[in-house]
Amino acid sequence: MSAVVKAACVQVSAGTELQPNLDVAGDLVRRARDAGAEFITLPENVGWIVQGRAKTMARVKTEAEHPGIPFFADLARETGAWILAGTLGVLQDDQRVANRSYLFNPQGQAVSHYDKIHMFDVDLKDGESYRESATFRPGERAVVAATPWGGVGMTICYDVRFPYLHRALAKAGASIITAPAAFTVPTGRAHWHTLLRARAIETGCFVVAPAQTGTHDEGRQTYGHSLIIAPWGEVLADAGEGVGVITADLDMARVEEARRMVPALNHDRDFVVVRDGF
């Protein structure tokens, strides 16, 4: 197992069409590899961002037909890096869409994938409204993928608000948790850094969170600030608001160090909830 791995977050501002977005992503992945990154991650919806079910269904492909999958497979072979291909929309048999994150090894094999479990169905006070469940089918399995530097627990965006998922991933062997995202600006400003730092601290994992940034279809805005966070909660790199790449060295010894200092993963207890006075 490698003691140290250089990880990268690629931060993009996806438009509505697949190929131009892939071209930009590919150039940034190569830039990350030139900077020495061995584990390169991309954001949620790296293929395209569109608003509404009709636009999504007009673009989505089955896994067998999706051009993004061989694109990232070829890119992994070309660069010799492990690549987390953010998420791609994959059409399912029930005519809903899996928001699916793929992990490719340097041989271009998709060694693991994870479908977003928690659907972003919210109404924000500024009038923004989202109903992911109208188009997307929630996943039903948590995933830890084996890599040369340890287990990688895979999550996506809104999953960050569910600590039990991250705890389960850590207990199942994750030392790194990935969180590709397209966070809104209001929720990003309020919660993004706090939530991701909390997930790192609670689990004693590195958190690698590549994010979308800028203005997208129909004026939707995303927060940016891709983050790489250490197991003790320190922010090792923050991409700010621009398109680009950040990197950080992940010293895997820090995982055991953090868990040894505060071994909370070993301290679970059963309990009952009592409602007094209701």
UniProtKB/TrEMBL annotation:
Which UniProt key words apply to this protein?
Answer: Hydrolase
Q: Which SUPFAM superfamilies match?
A: Carbon-nitrogen hydrolase (SSF56317)
Query: What domain of life is recorded for the organism?
Result: Bacteria
Cross-referenced CDD domains:
nit (cd07572)
**Molecular function (GO) terms listed?**
hydrolase activity, acting on carbon-nitrogen (but not peptide) bonds, in linear amides
Membrane-spanning segments: none
Name recorded for this polypeptide = Carbon-nitrogen hydrolase family protein
User: What is the organism of origin for this protein?
Assistant: Azospirillum griseum
Its lineage reads: Bacteria, Pseudomonadati, Pseudomonadota, Alphaproteobacteria, Rhodospirillales
